[in-house]
Amino acid sequence: MVVSSIFFLDVRGRIILTRNYRADIPISCVEKFRKIVVEEMFEDEETFPRPVFMAGGITYVYIQYKNIYVLAVTKQNANATAILSFLHRLVSVFREYLKEVEEESIRDNFVIVYELLDEMMDYGYPQFTETQVLQEYITQECHRLEIEEVRPPLTVTNAVSWRSEGISYKKDEVFLDVVESLNVLMSSTGSLLRSEINGTLLMRCHLSGMPELKLGLNDRVLFENMGRSAARTKSVELEDVKFHHCVRLSRFETERTISFIPPDGDFELMSYRLNTRVKPVIWVEMKTLRHEGSRVEYSVKAKANFKPRSTANKVQIEVPVPQDVDTPRFKTTNGGAKYVPERNVFVWYIKSFPGGSEFLLRASFGLPSLGGKSAVSLPPISVHFEIPYFTVSGLKVRYLKIIEKSGISALPWVRYITQSGDFSIRVGGV
């Protein structure tokens, strides 16, 4: 990946700020970008030019963030995906420093912007991209580059770019959250149309020194390599696994061991996806009764399809209603309900929903006296919830070890959370 120049442009394609790294592409190349991308966008708002294109022997790679374009140009046969990733990382770092990345903030802070561009890229090659490291050299208070020592490029030193040396805490702690979002689409008859689990492993590390961590999961591939029965050990086969760049991928591919030196603070260690048929953890069934166009009644039953030792919190069941209803009345066996006319739904709030339990709601709404008898098509019911200490996939952390030569002592904390993603149940006409 080699970048010749980076441009910050306004919505009209005019240059706000530029940094030329290799001096092999003239600044006039922006005119071609303006003609191909910006002018087409203004002529046809539904046109979305591709983020990578070539013109005149120059490769243009850009992203749009709010009211600015961030453009990178190169003459090399570079990795376009890597350049796009760098541009997104560039905007992320600018957000940490400037809070709001827009035309005015870039002009008002051009000194710190140039300093960041010079630290994050050297002669067109990416260097430091972690905010924690950049903050050692560039501070918002003085708006100038502070360098205590000159460090050679990372490609020479093979240093850990995402973590600084000399970190020290009075109390060493590490927290790991296994968060799973459940996406489900059910038909009005109760059949499962779509189900998917999206999981993330979120970490918060407050550790001294340069510790190495090892994480073990109930990974089916690992158990099979060890000759252990997947059925007896309740293993999980992960799909579309993505790691933070601190993870040693070669070791995971050969040993299925997640080994890494963590960044300091909060970060996402890993994400995964499971395409599997999952029984909805909260099932909602609704019946409607319409009385000659003058009144409509709803009978809603919600059941927790998980074991009693777990409890769902902050449960919200949003039931759509026709636009012209009025005079709402509710009666529930647990929680409370509220009509939200601006969204044409009523919301059933259940603070605590123990596993295996079942609750009922009855709602009544008035309808215009001249309303017709024809059925009205409504959006699906949506369900929102959070279940602590529970994973719907069965993923478990077998161990989380901290290896540190200085002998620091820290107790890892692991927490499991299952929450609703796009959890919808279709309804018939009312």
From TrEMBL:
It is found in: Endomembrane system. GO terms for biological process: intracellular protein transport; vesicle-mediated transport. Residues 171-426 form the MHD domain. Pfam families: Adap_comp_sub (PF00928), Clat_adaptor_s (PF01217). Its main location: membrane. CDD domains: AP-1_Mu1_Cterm, AP1_Mu_N. Keywords: Membrane, Protein transport, Transport. GO terms for cellular component: clathrin adaptor complex; endomembrane system. InterPro entries: Adaptor_comp_med_subunit, AP2_Mu_C_sf, AP_mu_sigma_su, Clathrin_mu, Clathrin_mu_CS, Longin-like_dom_sf, MHD. Belongs to the adaptor complexes medium subunit family. This is Clathrin assembly protein complex 1 medium chain. It comes from Stygiella incarcerata. The gene is arpc1.
